[in-house]
Design brief:
With 235 residues, this protein is an alpha+beta fold. The protein has helices at 3-10, 15-23, 114-121, 142-149, 189-196, 228-233; strands spanning 27-29, 32-33, 47-49, 52-53, 61-66, 95-96, 104-111, 129-135, 164-167, 177-182, 201-209, 212-213, 223-225. The strands form 2 sheets. Strands 5, 6, 7, 8, 9, 10, 11, 12 and 13 form a 9-stranded mixed beta sheet that branches. It has a 4-stranded antiparallel beta sheet with strand order 2-1-3-4, with no helix packed on it. Strand 1 (27-29) and strand 2 (32-33) form a beta hairpin. The longest helix has 9 residues, at 15-23. The radius of gyration is 21 Å and the shape is elongated. It binds uracil. The site of uracil has 8 residues, from helix 5.
Length: 235
């Protein structure tokens, strides 16, 4: 990781303060003064600040139940960032592994481990994401096959990757609630997939990422650390 990031991970300094210490020549990597904040370092390097050895804090892995009207961003905009709800040290150093729209609720994974989140986001890794979707119009059975074969989204060069659609049996059985499993995360993907088959998403909730399910007792806005098994299930 970058040296300035390593300093933040192992001290209480902000990124700006870390850069200042670097400029002042206070930092040594394996005995050599380093002033370039972008220098790549590894946890096995011997890194000292003012002569004190630095140890990086271990990475953090969090699940959160995203409420409506919050955004998956590291800065507040019209709506607040959901990181405001995560009351840990330096919450805004964390990032969100797979964003949800402002009007989508459900499972969000938050971490400061870029390699781990890459395994969730990268289309090559084919990590499943399961969404519960509420629709304006009843779905027809033929959509199951259409989604399996891939649909053409506006502005994209290729069809969507195979997706699994299951129609949920509800009390009134009106075919307006489905579970959709996708492995990609294109911009507004679920909404655009239903638009491609002339339907419209009226409610969207993410239930699962890979093997990690949204905890049933997490109310909107609540979060918890992932268990070791949950962290290791993403690879
Ligand atoms: N697809 C969407 O359209 N929106 C989301 O928030 C997530 C997936």
């Amino acid at each position: 990781m970058r040296l300035d990031k390593f300093i933040c991970k192992s001290t209480e300094l902000t990124r700006t303060e870390a850069k200042k210490s670097l400029k002042r020549g206070k930092l040594k990597v394996n005995g050599e003064v380093i002033t370039n904040a972008a220098t790549q370092v590894h946890e096995n390097n011997h890194i000292t600040l003012n002569g004190q050895e630095l140890q990086a804090r271990s990475s953090r892995y969090i699940m959160m139940h995203k409420p409506l009207d919050t955004i998956c961003s590291n800065v507040d905009e019209v709506h607040p960032s959901l990181l405001n709800f995560v009351d840990v040290d330096k919450a805004f150093d964390l990032h969100i592994a797979g964003r949800l729209d402002v009007d989508t609720t459900g499972l969000v994974l938050i971490t400061d481990d870029g390699r781990w989140s890459h395994n969730i986001i990268s289309p090559k890794k084919q990590c499943n994401k399961i969404y519960r979707v509420w629709l304006r119009d009843p779905v027809e059975q033929s959509i199951i096959q259409e989604f399996k074969d891939g649909v053409q989204l506006q502005g994209e060069n290729s069809l969507t990757k195979p997706a699994e659609l299951v129609i949920v049996e509800t009390d009134n059985n009106d075919y307006r609630e489905v579970l959709l499993t996708i492995t990609e995360g294109k911009y507004h993907q679920v909404k655009r997939m239903f638009a491609a088959v002339r339907n419209r998403v009226v409610g969207l909730h993410r239930e699962q990422i890979g093997e990690i399910k949204l905890g049933e007792n997490l109310a909107p806005g609540e979060w918890r650390y992932l268990t070791k098994d949950e962290v290791e299930s993403i690879n």
